[in-house]
Amino acid sequence: MTNRIPSLHARTYPPVPSVARDSRAVLRELLDRWELAELYESASLVLTELVSNAIRSEKPIGVAFSRRDSASLRVEVRDSGSGLPEAVAAEDDEESGRGLLLVGALAVEWGWRPIPDGKIVYAVLSLEGLPI
Q: Which residues form the signal peptide (predicted)?
């Protein structure tokens, strides 16, 4: 039955804070259907960080999930912002700046690629790479 479930889901959202909540609900449903529910906690944190960064562009955000194989998931977030993603260490008293460090800690791979109207930031999560 799993083979009949589409292995890709993509949607465009307006740049509003509820995107994180709405896209997490879609993520939970997909992971349940793809039999990858164990990835939800890590994937939802990664998704929230990527979406939070994309909202800053104040333009529509694309969110895509793809099932890579029986044990891994790719999360992609597209935005039209000009800023490039960079994992940097934040100072102890800063309220933000740690998101991509978190993504790097939870994902087995992450990165970004330019597209004509912005960029896509992605992260790959795997059941085999789950933190203990």
A: none
Q: What is the pLDDT along the chain (132 residues), one digit of tens a residue?
A: 444 555 889 999 999 989 999 999 999 999 999 999 999 999 999 999 999 989 988 899 999 999 978 889 999 999 998 777 766 665 555 555 567 888 999 999 999 999 999 999 999 999 886 654
Boundaries of every domain in the chain: 8-129
Which of 3.40.50.1480, 3.30.70.330, 3.30.565.10, 3.90.550.10 is the CATH number of 8-129? 3.30.565.10
Specify the 3-state DSSP secondary structure of 83: coil
Instruction: Tell me if 30 sits within 8 A of 65, measured CB to CB.
Output: yes
| Contact residues for 10 (Cβ-Cβ < 8 A; gap 6+) | 62, 63, 64, 65
Single-letter amino acid, residue 15: P
Output the pTM of the full model. Answer: 0.85
SS3 91: coil
Task: Identify the bridge partners of residue 92 per DSSP, sorted by sequence position.
Answer: none
**Of 96, 85, 67, whose CA–CA distance to 121 is shortest?**
85
The residue written with tokens 């933190």 in the block is: 131
